[in-house]
């Protein structure tokens, strides 16, 4: 653990009181680049076939992770096994046998799967037939906390709901509507499906726009073009669920006697009421259905304190990506493997490097290194862990999650998004300062990033958690070029072009890993556990 300078410690009374030194010296607690780079290169290699859930590459990945932890000497987290089984329901739309049409206004529109629409089953039915009215329900939000209800008592059983992603924007009168400039959970597409299922809807179709979703249509298409998964023991979804492009939504609204822009404007108001479109959805949905077991992988470095070793700090990262696919996004000069080098071979490599270091720097509390499955399917592995934890949640001090690390260059700062929601953030600020780093200033979370990484499953379960982000103030001769390099990753996100490049400068990745490890050690050595500040 790095030592706080006396002058710094004096100015940080609360966090400094929590920062206790590890019995190991600074050299022993230093993250090494060589193992991190080696793990990253292997996990992103074509051999692992993109680490797709339910695919051959998944088993290879799990085998690699557990072998590495065994070789390092970590204690298995589940009895004598590093594996925690997670039962998943797999659903793949058989596009050659499925078709959906929209009838109304004297016309019949049959949009093309992948180009205009993507859809699938939300429950384990191999064959379904639909003939249902379509209703526009605004943002599909029903939240007592926010005094907002887009359903207004409408019985949606047997109906297909067309709805917007994201949420109504704050106004001058209500600047903190939902979560103000930050997207709340009610704006996430996962919430929309969940809420529609709770209301008993037959189906849900979300209207995609890049600003609202924070990613382009190809990302949506790639996710739905492949097999999709949900927890086998979890709540069922609606029989039909999917997305439509904005152009198709506009055409369907017009076919149903409405204008999309006018409907969108109405949906911004509290007094919005559902609008029945003069439109029926008819068609059939054929799905390949199976149950598959995937695994979370976890190892433990036991604590040194006789009492505190019964508690743990978790470091987490998801090992899965999109696997092999046949999407139209496959680039002519690339294969069909979604390697996921940044997302999230980088996080897994960091955890393995931290585990190696932790063995030489044990802390008072135990430390768990948790690699979760099926994050790309909706945080399923971490949800399964939170529902059936390998370590009691009441004795889990915090979760520090890593997802898509800084592959560009070292920085003067570090990212602690939403650090203000728990005292874990206070400790993070102190650790950053002790490391000579500043905390990157917060910026509006327009895409709901807080709800899109595995730390959120722990937050929902009552454990303080955050995902440690990379910095943005790059160190180098041309900071603007480095920022452009980082921004260019957006075009590779969830594409076959997210591949490992041996020329990458991994000093920033090592820096981010070191900070996360130092923060985890600070939590693991502190006299008390972090606690929540924010009720949301």
Can you offer a commentary on this structure?
- By secondary structure, the protein is an alpha/beta fold.
- 28% of the residues lie in helices and 22% in strands.
- It is built from 15 helices and 21 strands.
- The strands form four sheets. It has a 15-stranded mixed β-sheet that branches.
- Helix 3 crosses helix 10.
- It is globular.
- The chain starts with 5 loop residues before the first helix and ends in an 11-residue tail after the last helix.
Identify the notable features of this structure and list them briefly.
single chain, 536 residues, alpha/beta, two-stranded antiparallel ribbon, 15 helices, 21 strands
Summarize the structure.
This protein is of the alpha/beta class and 536 residues long.
**Rg over CA atoms:** 24 Å
| Average of pLDDT | 92
Number of strands: 21
* Helix content bin: 25-40%
- Net shape: globular
**Gap between N and C termini, in Å?**
32 Å
Beta-strand content bin? 15-25%
Biggest β-sheet, characterized? 15 strands, mixed
Indicate the structural class: alpha/beta
Query: How many H/I helical runs?
Result: 15
List low-pLDDT spans: 1-27
